[in-house]
Amino acid sequence: MVVPAAGDSAVGFIGVGIMGAGMVGCLLKEGRRVVVWNRDATKTKALQSAYPELCTVAASAAAVVESCDVTWSMLSTLEASEAVFPQVVGAISPGKCIVDCATLTPDRMTSMSDQVVAAGGRFLEAPVSGSKVPAEQGQLIFLCAGDEPLYESVAAELEIMGKASFFFGPVGAGTKMKLVVNMIMGEQLAAIGEGLALCDAAGLSQTQLIDVLKLGVMNSPLLGLKGPKMVAGDFAPHFPLTHAQKDMQFSLGLADAVGVDLPVAKAANARYAQAKQAGRGDDDFAAVITAQTKQG
Questions:
Q1: Among 182, 180, 208, 206, which Cα is nearest to 194's?
Q2: pLDDT value, residue 76
Q3: What is the C-alpha radius of gyration for the chain, rounded to an integer number of angstroms?
Q4: What is the pLDDT of residues 267-281, one digit of tens each?
Q5: What is the pLDDT of residue 8?
Q6: Residue 289 CB partners (closer than 8 Å, separation 6+)
Q7: Among this protein's residues, is 176 annotated catalytic?
Q8: What's the half-sphere exposure (Cβ side, CA atoms, 13 Å) at 118?
Q9: From the candidates 43, 178, 226, 276, which is the catalytic residue?
Q10: Helices marked H in 51-90 — which ranges?
Q11: Cβ-based neighbours of 200, under 8 Å, separated by 6 or more
Q12: What is the pLDDT of residues 121-135, one digit of tens each?
């Protein structure tokens, strides 16, 4: 078992990729002690080097859970969750708490909650709305469900890492809300990409299009942030396209489960899938425009 330095109870954190690193950084900046583990150890070592007195690197995900009363998890994909979660469940003892911030499926979240509770633990789902920079700035939006007393007990950490948090009820409800949010975001960015592609093909200035849109009701933070990057071809990843496409696909699965047809989401998902197949999966999801630009 990891033995963190003396002081207040340490927070556990599994998964310090694009999102997790920023979230852990916010906790460390506030002087919180954190026990971390990541599949790529170079990322945890960087955090420990920056905060040697506050950050402890565990040898495994199980060691994090064993060392901390509350462990947060931010694993980027369903496959990563399926690979790591058995270690988490195996380390649960009565009273241990898991807060899972990944965007998965409602069924997956329910299954994880059931396993944690069966082992004597407590579970809160807390997927986040926001990407790399909001994670670094403590400006995420937490969409929570599950154990409401646990939600209330981690309020301080939610406040450190986010600008707002919501509680939606039983496990699965937070994930459903997150999928709806990301579906709308994916559709909106795909629409911006289509408009920029049409503008360029018609011999018009894409920059001027953005200027016009910013002056009207279609202005949005997403337009202001991603529009210029689409024009410049700047696809440095803040929210990787492969994750955006995953979330679009999950939202379509939710729609099928509740009997709702989503033709706009289906069309947008097809463009993200096309860009992913063309090798843009690790780029920012703004790279969807590469599947919309006129060829030849």
A1: 206
A2: 83
A3: 20
A4: 999 999 999 999 999
A5: 61
A6: 193, 196, 197, 230
A7: no
A8: 9
A9: 178
A10: 61-67, 78-90
A11: 206, 293, 294
A12: 999 999 999 999 999
